[in-house]
């Protein structure tokens, strides 16, 4: 029998393969024994029948039949030979069937032994695979545990750094806010001071200009009075008016 390719995944059997093989062999042996006993019994029956047919006939039994019952004599020799030949052929056929069953039993035993060998081989492979898988699972479990511990440490470190960074960010935001407020306040104050200074300068210039205008107005009033007086005098005397007109023109120039 050709050995099958070992390309299947072995699995753990529920019982022992040797027990299964022994049970199968025992069952086949019992069946074969029963068949042999039956064949032996048939052979004995056939031999007994042949011996009875070959035995001499009793003279009393060979007496002629009375005329009152005229019956034909029974011929038993040819019929007995025919029955014997039929039984012998049946026996030979049964023997051939027994040989065939014997060969099938031998083939079944060989197949059972091969099956037991393959199952033992599969069991060995399964145990080897199981050990490898258990080792891989253990290694992976240990590696995963180490990675989990590392991740937990990193998470704790990140949390601590995050809290410290949050505190630093809050302090920096507060400092920048205070600095910006102070800078804005200073800039606004300086700008206001500059604007106030400009307003004061403009006010001073305007005040000086208004003072000059007042002085010019006072002088103009005085000149108007003098002019009026001269006009009155000119009405009295034309030469005097002419002189005053000339003086007025000179004053304007």
UniProtKB/TrEMBL annotation:
<keyword id="KW-1133">Transmembrane helix</keyword>
<keyword id="KW-0812">Transmembrane</keyword>
<feature type="coiled-coil region">
    <location>
        <begin position="98"/>
        <end position="139"/>
    </location>
</feature>
<feature type="transmembrane region" description="Helical">
    <location>
        <begin position="228"/>
        <end position="250"/>
    </location>
</feature>
<keyword id="KW-0175">Coiled coil</keyword>
<protein>
    <submittedName>
        <fullName>Uncharacterized protein</fullName>
    </submittedName>
</protein>
<keyword id="KW-0472">Membrane</keyword>
<feature type="region of interest" description="Disordered">
    <location>
        <begin position="43"/>
        <end position="80"/>
    </location>
</feature>
<feature type="region of interest" description="Disordered">
    <location>
        <begin position="1"/>
        <end position="20"/>
    </location>
</feature>
């Amino acid at each position: 029998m050709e050995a099958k390719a070992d390309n299947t995944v072995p699995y753990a059997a529920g019982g022992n393969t040797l027990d299964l093989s022994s049970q199968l062999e025992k069952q086949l042996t019992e069946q074969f024994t029963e068949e042999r006993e039956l064949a032996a019994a048939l052979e004995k029956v056939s031999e007994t029948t042949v011996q009875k047919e070959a035995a001499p006939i009793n003279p009393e039994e060979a007496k002629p039949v009375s005329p009152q019952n005229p019956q034909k004599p029974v011929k038993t020799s040819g019929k007995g030979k025919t029955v014997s030949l039929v039984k012998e052929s049946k026996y030979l056929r049964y023997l051939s069937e027994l040989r065939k069953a014997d060969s099938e039993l031998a083939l079944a035993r060989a197949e059972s032994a091969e099956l037991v060998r393959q199952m033992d081989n599969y069991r060995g492979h399964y145990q080897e695979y199981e050990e490898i898988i258990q080792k891989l699972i253990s290694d992976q479990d240990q590696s995963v545990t180490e990675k989990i511990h590392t991740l937990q440490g990193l998470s704790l470190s990140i949390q601590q750094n995050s809290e410290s960074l949050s505190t630093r960010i809050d302090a920096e935001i507060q400092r920048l806010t205070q600095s910006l407020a102070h800078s804005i306040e200073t800039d606004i104050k300086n700008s206001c001071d500059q604007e106030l200074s400009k307003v004061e300068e403009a006010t001073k210039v305007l005040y000086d200009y208004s003072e000059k205008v007042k002085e010019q107005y006072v002088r103009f009033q005085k000149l108007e009075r003098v002019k009026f007086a001269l006009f009155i005098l000119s009405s009295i005397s034309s030469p005097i008016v002419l002189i005053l007109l000339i003086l007025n023109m000179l004053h304007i120039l």
